[in-house]
Design a protein that fits this description.
This protein is α/β, with parallel strands linked by helices. It has two helices and eight strands. It has a four-stranded mixed beta sheet, with helices on one face. A four-stranded mixed beta sheet has the order 5-8-7-6, with helices on one face. It is globular and about 45 Å long.
Length: 133
Amino acid sequence: MFSHIFIGINDFEGAFAFYRPLAVALGLNLRFSDADAGWAAWNKGDGFRPLLVIGRPFDGNPATPGNGQMTALLAGTRAIVDECHRLALANGGVSEGEPGLRPHYHPDYYGAYFRDPEGNKLCVVCDAPETSA
C-alpha cells in the first residue's frame, strides 16, 4: 500500500540515534544511511519497499511536526510495544500515552504513543491477541 513514510528531521545524528534502536526492536533492516545528505531508511525483509525514512526536508526549510499527523509502526508482540516505548523515552522521546490496551479501537489493540525529540508523533501497535507463554 505504501512506498515509504518520510519523517522530517533537522538533527540527523540525534534522529538517527533515536530511530535506530526502535528499528532494531521492530526487526527492521537499515537500507541506507547518509549523514551528509541527512537521511536514513529501514524496512523489513529482503525487499526494498516499503521504507521508513527519516530525513531533512528536500526544500531546505526546517522540518516541523504536523498537527494531527502520526506514524504508526506495527509490532509483532505487546512486549515489543513496551520495549519501543521504553527505548523512545530513553533516547529523548516524550510519552504521549503509556503502552496498553485501547479497546475503543478494537479488543486486541495494544499501543504506545510518543514523540521523537523533534516533536513528530509516533505510535507502536500490536493488533494480535495476548498469548500465554
